[in-house]
Design goal:
Shape: globular
Helix content: 25-40%
Strand content: 25-35%
CATH class: Alpha Beta
Number of helices: 2
Strand order of the largest sheet: 2-1-3
Low-confidence stretches: none
Largest sheet: 3 strands, antiparallel
Number of domains: 1
Distance between the termini: 13 Å
Structural class: alpha+beta
Length: 62
C-alpha cells in the first residue's frame, strides 16, 4: 500500500433498494449521490467496503 495511496471512487449505480449493509458501505465511503466521486485512502477497511459494493462503483488509482 505504500505511502498513502489514494483511490478515486465513483458511484455508478443507485443504492436505493439495496441491502442496508450495502447502503452503509456507500455512505461510509462518503458517497451521497449518483456519479459523485470521492478520493479515499487505500486502506484494508476502505478496500473491504469497495469490494462489498463493487457492482455499484468504479474505482481508479490516483
Amino acid at each position: 500500500m505504500g505511502k498513502n495511496k489514494q483511490l478515486k471512487v465513483t458511484l455508478t449505480r443507485s443504492f436505493h433498494g439495496r441491502l442496508a449493509s450495502h447502503k452503509a458501505c456507500v455512505a461510509g465511503l462518503g458517497l451521497r449521490r449518483m456519479h459523485q466521486s470521492v478520493t479515499v485512502i487505500d486502506t484494508p477497511e476502505n478496500r473491504g467496503m469497495i469490494n462489498k459494493v463493487s457492482y455499484m462503483l468504479s474505482v481508479e488509482e490516483v
